[in-house]
Amino acid sequence: MKLTRRDFLKVSGAATAGLALSGLGIDFSPVEAYAWELRTREAKETPTICCYCAVGCGILCQTDKKTGQVIYTEGDADHPINGGSLCAKGASVYQLARNDKRVTNVLYRAPNSDKWQVKKWDWALKEIAKRVKKTRDASLVEKNEQGQVVNRCNGIASVGSAAMDNEECWLYQAMLRSLGIVYIEHQARI
After folding, report:
1. DSSP single-letter state for residue 183
2. Pairing of strands 181-186, 117-119
3. Residue 46: closest CA among 81, 70, 13
4. pLDDT digits (tens, 9 = 90+) for 110-123
5. Quick one: average pLDDT of 161-180?
6. Fold type of domain 44-97
7. 3-class DSSP state for residue 84?
8. Structural domain spans, the chain
9. CA nearest to 53, candidates 76, 81, 84, 83
10. What is the torsion angle, in degrees rounded to the nearest 10, for the CA atoms of residue 101, residue 106, residue 107 and residue 112?
């Protein structure tokens, strides 16, 4: 029998691999398959739009039917814009809903103070409404120089958020315009 160098390497490589695998304790006997239950099996699936940019990628959001908490998010494969793919920001949208480091209380720092105070949501909403009304009343221009009714509020401006989808932006700008605010901008245009 003639043994070439190539044949020697094949045989010795197979023997070494077999010896290594036997030393690891790998069992090649048949095993019973194990299947686990998907955590999204009983979840409610809701299509939504990614809130990060103006592209409008589709996302499927699975929520627990009992608690309403977000369980999982993924790209919507049936969406005409992204076809199921998401950028790094869109893929991390789950963390907007489920993040233990997210601030959930109202934090207020009084003028000239160096300490934050935890306040109630009712207090914060009333305080915001009070300050908006005070500023609007002080800066409302009812008529222009020609005597035309304009009802324009020059003392308040708004820069929108990239974390708002198109529907939220429309509602937000409609509310601002109803107050007479004309300086409305969005961070995507800046």
Report:
1. E
2. unpaired
3. 70
4. 999 999 999 999 99
5. 84
6. N-terminal domain of TfIIb (2.20.25)
7. coil
8. 44-97, 121-186
9. 81
10. 160
